[in-house]
Design brief:
Layout (H helix, E strand, L loop, with lengths): L2 H12 L3 H20 L4 E3 L3 E8 L2 E5 L4 E5 L2 E8 L1 H9 L33
Helix pairs in contact: 1-2
Length: about 120
């Protein structure tokens, strides 16, 4: 699944316009990235934690020159899945215990754009 498909899936589930969903997804990703760059953890209960970890100094092989080189330690982004997410992946389906992974789904009776804010308050 790529970002466009993710936006479409969320738009279908929430009956929000894809353009609005794309703005929210972009804001979410930017916010998580900014927090991780600052060294903060972003914890999404039931899903997982985004964090910055330091990769240890290590030895690598320069194949072109045929020699060993030392790579310094450096910070890298990491994701640690939460228990419900791990269990859902292990079962290859979403279990009742992992309900947070299913996300909200509006009733069929709700209009396609019923969850939208009034047009006067929406950003264009």
């Amino acid at each position: 699944m790529n970002k466009r498909q993710l936006v479409e899936e969320i738009a279908d589930r929430t009956r929000l316009p894809p353009r609005d969903v794309a703005l929210v997804v972009d804001a979410f990703l930017a916010t998580v990235a900014r927090a991780v760059v600052r060294g903060e953890k972003v914890v999404l209960s039931g899903f997982g934690t985004f964090l910055r970890v330091v990769r240890a100094r290590r030895t690598a092989r320069d194949i072109g020159a045929g020699r060993t080189i030392r790579l310094p330690s450096r910070p890298v982004p990491a994701f640690r899945p939460g228990r419900p997410f791990r269990e859902a992946v292990a079962r290859r389906r979403v279990s009742p215990r992992a309900r947070t992974l299913q996300g909200p789904r509006l009733p069929e009776s709700a209009g396609r754009h019923s969850a939208r804010a009034p047009s006067a308050t929406r950003r264009r």
